[in-house]
Amino acid sequence: MNPTWVQQLIVLGTLLGARHTSTDTAGSWCYEDAECGPETWVALGHGNGTRQSPVNIVTPASVHSRHLGAVSLTGYEDARKLISMENTGKTVSVHLADGLHLSAQGLPATYTAKSFHLHWGEGEDRPGSEHFINHKGFSMELHIVHTKNNLSMDDALKDPEGITVLAFFLQATAHARPSHSWDSFTQHLKKVALKGKKMNLDGSFSLWGLLGSVDLARYYRYQGSLTTPNCDEVVVWTVFPDPILVPPGVVTAFTSMLHSTDSADKLQNNYQPLQSLGDHQVEASAALRVTPSSSSTPRAAVLIPLLISIMVITWQL
Ligand SMILES: *[C@@H]1O[C@H](CO)[C@@H](O)[C@H](O)[C@H]1NC(C)=O
Ligand SMILES: *[C@@H]1O[C@H](CO)[C@@H](O)[C@H](O)[C@H]1NC(C)=O
Ligand SMILES: [Zn+2]
User: How far apart are CA 202 and CA 208, in angstroms?
Assistant: First the structure.
């Protein structure tokens, strides 16, 4: 046999081998291709369970729980806790150092933050949040993943309340004030543009900075699942309905700069479709009963003329 033939066969064999292992390990599921998309995830795990996420949260159907006060976060303002950032091909994930703790009423323990990542659509026009509020989606969704009592992820998956995720919406709007933290985060994205790229962070932004002025007392709580395979039903969700307002450029940075492969495919629409809530309950925190200041205006608009007419009538009497 001609030696160049042998070489070519070896190269071909290596390529086929490499391709085979990469499909075996990393890429057995996807978002947008019918062959590996969400309809096929049931075969990978718990996708046919009864507490699947994400869900559409309907305000009037939620149960108001007076005992659910503000969540308490410690360590989230420390920028040095953000260690590294990675393009997993499915999202961009930030790995967190020890020391970020979450406690809140209704949670059975203190939870430790391990990482955070985001879900997005296709730019400003196609929203990419996973949860919906009153049938409305948002531009993006931020998930901070915590384990109970600092369990490892593997151990947390064995406990029905092993994981708690804080979910924050991002909404692109031209009226948003510029955010140093989001600018800093998005400036790093080009360094992890391709799948598998990882970089160390430099302490230039903190989680607290990303959250902006979201009211930590206003949230919904329900028992659900991971939103990626194996969709394990081990997540206590805390979903904050008031979005973090960001300039449109923040959203387009995610939808345009990242790739789902090590070449050209854009990483977009990385959200799971809504799942049925069935007859499960969503709890609304105590502060959600108090509607935000904007909706107090209609009440004032009715009350003030009423008061004036009463005064006028009394005056005339
Ligand atoms: C659905 O879940 C049950 C266990 O609850 C399992 O026995 C069954 O095989 C699952 N169905 C599919 C299609 O995965
Ligand atoms: C939490 O878990 C991590 C990873 O397993 C470990 O490195 C760290 O020391 C733990 N922290 C505490 C306070 O036990
Ligand atoms: Zn997520």
Answer: 16
